[in-house]
What does this fold into?
Amino acid sequence: MVGISLFLPSWSCVKDALLDKHLAENTFGDQQLQVMGRPMKSLLVAISWSCILVFGAVKFIIWSSLLSSWKGIAFSVAGLALVTILMYIFILFSQSERSTPARVAPLQPRNGNAPSEASQKKQH
It folds into this structure.
């Protein structure tokens, strides 16, 4: 714990210095662009889940003979339309332009309306 407590203040100072430099120069300095790439593991997980879901959907459609009648086709189209509309609504309301900003309460002086000690010293 002692090592961490000594490391954090120095890290905070370095971070603040870099932020001040960025604000002053509007750049991140002489550092080269570092390409981080995308992790391969998450791509493999997404592809695996997609394959499993598609395989399950195809097996279900074949098992249930859902697309063999007009009633089944209409049910499938209605379900797909419902999912599409719900996704559109979720995407629309999750956009930051449409979000209402959080309200921040105005700062209240700690000692009510009385002037602080620092302002009293400046007046004298």
